[in-house]
Structure formats: C-alpha cells, structure tokens
Design a protein that fits this description.
The complex is a heterodimer of chains A (about 200) and B (about 325).
Chain A lengths: L1 H15 L10 E14 L6 E15 L5 E12 L8 E3 L2 E18 L2 E20 L4 E16 L7 E12 L6 E13 L1 H7 L1
Antiparallel strand pairs in A: 1-2, 1-9, 2-3, 3-5, 5-6, 6-7, 7-8, 8-9
Chain B lengths: L1 H24 L9 E7 L18 H14 L3 E6 L5 H14 L5 E7 L2 E5 L16 E6 L4 E4 L2 E4 L4 E3 H9 L5 E7 L13 E2 L14 H12 L1 H6 L10 E4 L9 E2 L4 E2 H6 L2 H4 L7 E3 H20 L9 E2 L4 E7 L2
Parallel strand pairs in B: 1-2, 1-3, 3-9, 9-11
Antiparallel strand pairs in B: 4-5, 5-8, 6-7, 11-15, 12-13, 14-16
Classes of the chains: A mainly beta (about 200), B alpha/beta (about 325).
Chain lengths: ~200, ~325
C-alpha cells in the first residue's frame, strides 16, 4: 500500500509538473489510419494485405517538450491478401498494447506561426490476434519506428494534428517476414495547455 | 510553389496510391494451380453386415461419391475409394500415384468419411518433443480392414488405421506445399496440430465459445515462447504440413443423418461452391468453406442441441496461409 502511494504520487508529480513549467505537458491522442502489411510464408511469395488501424495513446514529456515517453492501446484489422496463384494470407484482427519513446524538434514553417514539429518514435508492441471467421488466437510482439510531423493550429494550441508514417516489424515465428505500415492521422489533446487557456 | 508540391504529393499518396494498392491486392485475375484429390469413404467395414448395422455406417460411401462428383466438376483430378477399396495399403499406393503426377505448386486434397476415435496416448514420450499436456491423446481414422468381428465383439487392427501423427507423416511425403485435409469423422479435431494458436471453440462444444481472458492470453504467450521447440517435431498435422477441416472437436462425436443422406460436415460442404464465397470474390477458400460449414451446423443442428452432448463444432487449422479450393458457382 505504501509503495502504491509512492507510485501514485510520482505519476501526479510527472503529470502536474508541466502546469508550472513552460512545456506542453502530457497529451492524449486518437489515431486512425490505413495502410499495408507485407506477409511472407517461407513456402510462398510475399503479398500485401490492406488494413486499418485505430489507437488511443498518451505521452508524457520528460525534461522538455522534445523528449516523450508514451503508451498506446489499439485495434488493427488486416484484410486477406490477393488470391493470385491460388494462395492467400488470411485476414486477421489485432488488439495491441505498446510503449514508445519519441524525440521531436520544432522547425519554423511559414504557414503556421506555431511551427511544425518533426520527429521519430521507437515503439514496442505486444498483440493478441485472431484470424477472420475463426476463434483462433495467437500472440506476437512487434517493434518499429515512426516518422511524424505535428501541426499545432494557432486558434487552438491545446490540440495538434499529426501525420504518422510507421514501419512495424512483427516477430512472427510462423512467417518468414511480416511487417505493417498503417499510415495514420492523429489528433492530440494537451490538457495542460487547455487548462492554462481556461 | 513548394508548398503546393508538398500538398499535391500528399494528395497523390492518399487519394491515388492507396486505393491503387487496395485494388491491386484485390485483383481477381488469378492462376489456379492443378488440383488433385484422394476421396475416401467407408460405410461397410464388415462386408457381411448391411450398411447401418454397427459397426457399419450408412452414408460415408455416399459422402465420398458426392464429394468426388463435386470436386471433378470443379476441375480436380480425383481418386475415389469407397468401402473395401479404401484401405491403408490403397491409400499409400494412391499417394505414390499422386506423387507421380503432382508438381510442387499444385493443390492436394484428402477427404475422408468414416469412423474416427480417440484413445489415450500411452507413450507420449515416444513422439519426441510432443508436449504431453497439450496432446496427450491420439485420434484415429479407421480405413477398411482395420475393424473386424471377433466372436461377439470387435477387434481393431491398429496397423491398418491412421493415427493423427502417422497421417501427418504420410501427408508430408506428398510433393506439394499446398495440402488440404477434410475429415468427416468422430474426434477429427485431434488431427489439427496448431503450435501457435489457441482455439477458443471448445473441443467438446456445447454452444459456448471460451472468452478471451487472461488465461487465453497467458497460453498464447507460452505457445509463442515455445514455438521453436513445439514446431521442431509438431504433433498431429501442423498448419505448415496441411490445412485441416474437421467435422468435430477432438472430444466430440459427429453424426450422419438419414434426413440429410450424408454426414453433417459433408452435407454442408457439398453446398460450398454455391454458398461459401463469403467475400464474393468469385472463389471459395479453405477458410471460407470452414466458416460456411461451421455456421450452417450451428444454425441447422446446434440450435436444437445446445448444452447437450449432441452439439458439435467443426475446427480448422491455424497458420497465416489459406488456399483457394475452387471457383464459386
């Protein structure tokens, strides 16, 4: 119980520290996107699987606005690949949890007085997956990188729009190769900035 | 001008390239490989008994004949064996015949209708690294000659049956990487040898699917961690060896019906060319066949037998790969 209180107090300090400092504080994000997954069984040719990705994320700045740690929980669905030559890769759904670290730099941009931040993010994920039309569930971890650009509108600096181009490698033991790249648009809310505004 | 170029590039990527990728990946102009099938059905295990008199079945030979006709109509080269022609020796001879013709990219399908059973695996250690807690039972199919009358009882000649591991080994000798097995017999779910996936449909189905809880997650992670070990000598028929559709779970019996004139799985499988193209792409895959048959059995059979021993569910192999069985009607 004592330990739990220490943890809770630490989280409170981390989350509330930005209120009294210059940085933008923690953020809550909602992402939606579509992309492709590349799949290859050792016996057959590589094929594309189109899919969608939705996830909810949160990030906390460490030391400054440039460096963040975060977590995410999301859902993906990948459709069947093409049927060419009589084989296909099965469509499947994933629910995943991930942790991330990101680094960003603000660069001046004439269109926005608030500028644009560009950056990169390292991601580690764990997912539970289920093939379409079945109740066959399986697990695999993934790791990846994301490049992103964040736009903060002048009229509402407590939100931002982020374009994300990820590359996620899936450590699937039953496949020779599996990766996914769900290009997404993320809407982020900065509660601390909103609180300051109010 | 530069800004316009940036926005144009983004617009092209999202409005042209992405739909193009989706379209290409859904292209329907496919080149199907040649397809071969061995179709076995045994009703008369004991020649001196009539069909339907135990241990003889009534419709397994009819199942085989109907499945053969359907596959031939879909362009398969089919070897059909019923009753006394459907022996283990004949199976091995037919495998040799198939191997003399089949090429690595062709599709092979083995269909079986007849008796199946489950028995405790007495020597799990004899099967190398087979994890005894995951597959402590053997399942069997009974080819002709494996069941005989002895006095007032029956005797089983195990050497003329196939157990799950032995059938898996026999299938491995077939010289193609595209193999499908459809087994319409009791306990046939035990022929499926998944080494990565948890099947939430219970092997003794009464109408409820297991929920995705912490226990399932833990087991899935364990299977992932043990994948290399389990897959070095996978039990049963692994997904990389052949995709299996079973009529029932490994702890279930299945039924043939006088009103249907077939075994349950077979009756609905015969409808798959016209009804199982679930995504309307013009082709029926192994997974679509399974999904159709499972749903049909749920609606037309399990509805009346929920929470009883009569309820049953087909099962399918895991694995990321699926094969086209035939064009839809």
């Amino acid at each position: 119980m004592h330990k739990k209180n220490i943890y809770l107090f630490s989280i409170f300090v981390i989350l509330s520290a930005p209120v009294f400092s210059e940085n933008r504080g923690f953020s809550l994000g909602l992402s939606g996107g579509a992309g492709i997954s590349l799949t290859k069984d050792s016996r057959f040719a590589v094929k594309l699987q189109p899919g969608i990705d939705y996830h909810f994320s949160t990030e906390i700045p460490l030391f400054s606005d440039d460096f963040h740690i975060g977590s995410r929980i999301g859902y993906m669905h990948w459709l069947n690949s093409s049927l060419s030559k009589g084989i296909l890769y099965r469509g499947y759904s994933s629910v995943y949890f991930g942790l991330s670290v990101s680094f960003r730099r603000r660069i001046p941009f004439k269109l926005f007085r608030t500028g644009i931040s560009i950056g990169g993010r390292l991601i580690g994920e764990a997912s539970i997956n289920e093939y379409d039309y079945t109740y066959l569930d399986y697990f695999y971890p993934s790791a990846g990188i994301e490049a992103f650009a964040e736009f903060i509108p002048e009229f509402a600096p407590f939100i931002s729009f982020i374009a994300v181009i990820p590359f996620i490698y899936n450590f699937r033991p039953d496949l020779q190769y599996s990766s996914s790249s769900p290009f997404s648009i993320r809407l982020k809310l900065y509660p601390v900035v909103l609180w300051r505004k109010l | 001008m530069k800004k316009k170029t940036v926005f144009r590039t983004i617009a092209v990527v999202f409005s042209v390239l992405l739909p193009l990728i989706l379209t290409v990946s859904c292209t329907l102009n496919i080149n199907l490989p040649k397809s071969y099938a061995m179709v076995y059905g045994i009703s008369k295990y004991i020649d001196s008994y009539n069909e339907g008199v135990y241990p003889n079945l009534t419709y397994s030979d009819d199942d085989a004949v109907s499945v053969s006709s359907m596959l031939e109509a879909k362009g398969y080269t089919v070897i059909t064996r019923t009753d006394s022609a459907a022996s283990k020796e004949q199976f091995l001879a037919d495998v040799d015949t198939i191997n003399s013709e089949i090429r690595p990219g062709d599709l092979f399908l083995f269909y079986y209708s007849g008796h199946g059973a489950q028995s405790r695996d007495l020597e799990p250690s004899s099967k190398g690294v087979e994890p005894p807690d995951r597959d402590s039972d053997d399942e069997w199919i009974f080819l002709y000659g494996s069941i005989a009358v002895s006095g007032s009882g029956l005797t089983i000649d195990e050497s003329r049956t196939f157990d799950d591991d032995e059938l898996g080994k026999a299938l491995k000798t077939i010289k193609t990487s595209r193999k499908v097995v459809i087994i319409d017999s009791c306990n046939s779910g035990g022929f499926i040898g998944n080494t990565l996936e948890i099947d939430r449909v219970p092997q003794n189905f009464t109408g409820k699917i297991n929920i995705l809880n912490a226990g399932v997650l833990k087991e899935a992670v364990t299977l992932y961690a043990d994948y290399s070990k389990n897959n070095s000598a996978p039990p049963d028929i692994s997904p990389s060896n052949a995709l299996v559709i079973s009529a029932s779970g490994e702890s279930e019996v299945t039924y043939e019906s006088s009103s249907l004139g077939h075994g349950l799985l077979t009756y609905f499988f015969l409808d798959t060319p016209k009804d199982a193209d679930l995504n309307k792409d013009g082709y029926v895959t192994v997974l679509e066949s399974f999904a159709y048959v499972q749903a049909a059995i749920n609606v037309n059979w399990n509805t009346y037998y929920l929470n009883t021993d009569y309820a049953l569910s087909p099962h399918i192999s895991g694995g990321a790969v699926d094969f086209v069985l035939f064009p839809a009607n």
